[in-house]
Automatic annotation (TrEMBL), chains A, B:
It is found in: Cytoplasm. Pfam families: tRNA-synt_2, tRNA_anti-codon. Keywords: Aminoacyl-tRNA synthetase, ATP-binding, Cytoplasm, Ligase, Nucleotide-binding, Protein biosynthesis. The lineage of its organism: Bacteria, Bacillati, Bacillota, Clostridia, Lachnospirales. It catalyses: tRNA(Asn) + L-asparagine + ATP = L-asparaginyl-tRNA(Asn) + AMP + diphosphate + H(+). GO terms for molecular function: asparagine-tRNA ligase activity; ATP binding; catalytic activity, acting on a protein; nucleic acid binding; transferase activity. GO terms for cellular component: cytoplasm. This is Asparagine--tRNA ligase. One of its GO terms (biological process) is asparaginyl-tRNA aminoacylation. CDD domains: AsxRS_core, EcAsnRS_like_N. The gene is asnS. Residues 135-453 form the Aminoacyl-transfer RNA synthetases class-II family profile domain.
Length: 463, 463
């Protein structure tokens, strides 16, 4: 079928003016008088809707006038510019083909629905303004991320989803199995015989692709992952999901400074890409979700990010300890209240906090010369706090295995990872960006359930 | 660190000629005479390697000369054009910093290793020529797919990985659970009490995002998915993996013709993108993996794909039944031998086979007017057979539920899917492209384990 999209019509209305066009879409509203009527039509390709005017010269005038919200139709007609009206043009329909009717009990009537209600109909909510905007922007952010890294010749690596290791260390894991839970094979020790499982051992869903990603950075220099990760954590908050996507670049022959430069360039690139490619959606968010959104994002895109060591940050925050629920002192982990205070009140722009105490960070982070801190970095942004976490990695075999011993980690589980430090090790660094957190940040949406098409949280795995 | 990549040097050698550059990379080989030596260096950004010349004026001349293959170094020196030599330029090193040594037992010595051996060191094999080429091309194909759909304003949808439905119907599933297998909660019926599991019920890994994807096509018109899918099938072949990525576009207000047009345009776009952006890698595959690769791909990119109905295809194949292990007759499913015969011998180009008997296809495919066949399409390509499978979907509520009853499917499991046929249903279509099969097709690699960074197959889940 030769259909024109609503996006094409808006982008090139001059070209189509006075011409006959055919558009397919879903009815947002119909109102009719005796001899003519108006239809507001959405075809999902553009945030703005299309106005269709139809007349009683049509055979099915009465039938069209009775169509319910949500019905699918194909409209043929002439595009007429309407410079004096609210909308820039309309279609004077000569024919309307009814593809599929809707019903009067269609769950999305023309009124405001609560986010909570819309979550119960995740298969229909993308038809609303809010979720049209959210999920188109989500798609654009994903593409901006690929585009950013590919333009810089990074290699996209699909790290595995099912992992035989429980050594990723970032959280509670989901078990993956083909064993029949009602009829488990038992070993002689009275425990489940995992050797009978699909992979010949117990396997889980990944919590991070980083360790695998590092192996590819040691071959391609610059790589990134972009895939789903999982946490089986029993936390029912607005910011946690059991299944979410993560981007994890890893760069070789690079240190913490290079890592921060990369993270800063990436965030600015994403923001600019979305502001440029989804202006209608961003204006909608700014009007209905968060009045300061666009100003804040433009501020981030236009400022040089601050850089401050954890030790300095603690000194700065200590002066305001009376304003915090949790008082800070050297050695403590930063809470969201501290992070937001740093970026919103003290720096008034995004800021990297670097060189955290080694005891509050992961084993693979590079030990600094002070012997107390590691070359970690967290990127804090106004309105949210931490959005990116990363580090330079410990490339020294002896220091790394020493740290693993301190923490009681089993070296055999990390053979492949230690090989990287035996065979041509080099300074390298990387970070992780939670994709959904990034979408929340760019849209102003405050609940992670509303930026994931079909969210998975404790007790919730619908559709 | 301000490093220039080998890719940049090759792309702009004139610009760098006579200038001092700094490059980090890994040693592929070293050979020295008394007063000078040669290093072949790879930094992973470009398929070609960099020649470095170093001299005994360097303090660490002896140490450098003893470096093992795989060592990481940083080289400073002047880029000198060498128009008469095999390589277009070399670096006359003034300084070599040793980042990380390798050892004499480095598993990748300068010789041919078997694919089987390299599979046992999946963390190191991307350092070899073959896997440098495979995994850069894999990355480029992934990007080409995003680029193709985004340029056409398709919305990228992350359909869920963990699913509460076992209704996707495409194969054996992996169970996902947080229950302690050694201490399962039992219900009164003596069976495992799945209500105690993380999501309050039994959940599995997805086998297809299509049904979820359709819900988004009914909101955005044109969408695509690109994510991991899973099959717990006990098949140990060169073409099956338990974890693989799939692309599933879905288009609304579109029929089977539109679907074929889209698939054909996509395949041609991917091929052209890779030929243009990875000429060195493709030349390597053509020389060492498959001598007809580039000619075949150019043929596909340059030809109009054939289109033939299943019924006509059966008539054509029947004439050659003496050449087949499995004889064809109307109603049978096509085997790879038939598919390849059609595309390689009869059509001598890619061909879509359409309108298969309904009994060998899925329940959601649109019934044709003949009542016997469905609007399915398989795309067959020379050298491999089926690479894409898709269909127009049944948009009629009564026909769809009728077909589900015939097949004994439980309607309650498909409530959300049937809603799409109640509220503004429209003709729509989609297809699935197995990403790894696509990578195999474009690289000539014959084992799926060699196009996945960390492959998962029966009994194998390493790293």
């Amino acid at each position: 079928m030769e259909l024109i999209t609503v996006r094409e019509l808006f982008k090139e209305k001059e070209k189509f003016a006075g011409k006959e066009v055919t558009v397919g879409g879903w009815i947002r509203s119909v109102r009719d008088s005796k001899t003519f009527g108006f239809i507001v039509l959405s075809d999902g390709t553009y945030f703005e809707t299309l106005q269709v005017v139809y007349h009683d010269k049509m055979e099915n005038f009465a039938e069209v006038s009775k169509l319910n919200v949500g019905s699918a139709i194909i409209v043929k007609g002439e595009l007429t510019l309407t410079p004096d009206a609210k909308q820039p043009f309309e279609i004077q329909a000569t024919e309307i083909i009814i593809e599929g009717k809707s019903t009067s009990d269609y769950p999305l009537q023309k009124k405001r629905h609560s986010m909570e209600y819309l979550r119960t109909i995740s298969h229909l909510r993308p038809r609303t303004n809010t979720f049209q905007a959210v999920f188109r922007v989500r798609s654009l952010i994903a593409y901006a991320i690929h585009k950013f890294f590919q333009e810089r010749d990074f290699v996209y690596v699909h790290t595995p989803i099912i992992t035989g290791s429980d050594a990723e260390g970032a959280g509670e894991m989901f078990r993956v199995t083909t064993l029949d839970l009602d009829n488990l094979p038992m070993g002689e020790d009275g425990k489940v015989d995992n050797s009978k499982d699909f992979f010949g051992k117990a396997t889980n869903l990944t919590v991070s692709g980083q360790l695998n990603g590092e192996t590819y950075a040691m071959a391609f220099k610059n790589i990134y992952t972009f895939g789903p990760t999982f946490r089986a954590e029993n936390s029912n908050t607005t910011r946690h999901a059991a299944e979410f996507w993560m981007i994890e670049p890893e760069i070789a022959f690079a240190d913490l400074e290079d890592n921060m430069d990369l993270a800063e360039a990436m965030l600015k690139y994403i923001i600019n890409y979305v502001l440029e490619n989804a202006p209608e959606e961003m204006a909608f968010f700014n009007q209905f979700i968060d009045k300061e959104l666009i100003e804040r994002l433009k501020g981030v895109a236009g400022s040089d990010f601050g850089r401050v060591s954890y030790t300095e940050a603690i000194e700065l925050l200590k002066e305001h300890n009376d304003e915090f629920d949790y008082k800070v002192s050297w050695g403590c982990d930063l809470q969201t209240e501290h992070e937001r205070y740093l970026t919103e009140k003290i720096f008034k722009r995004p800021v990297f906090v670097t060189d955290y105490p080694k005891d509050i960070k992961a084993f693979y982070m590079k030990l600094n010369e002070d012997g107390k801190t590691v070359a970690a970095m967290d990127c804090l942004v106004p309105g949210i706090g931490e959005i990116i976490g990363g580090s330079q990695r410990e490339e020294d075999y002896d220091l790394l295995t020493g740290r693993m011993k301190e923490l009681g980690l089993n070296e055999a589980d990390y053979d492949f990872y230690l090989d990287l430090r035996k065979y041509g090790s080099t300074r390298h660094a990387g970070f992780g960006l939670g994709f959904e957190r990034c979408v929340m940040y760019l849209t102003g949406m405050s609940n992670i359930r509303d930026v994931i098409p079909f969210p998975r949280t404790v007790g919730n795995c619908e559709l």
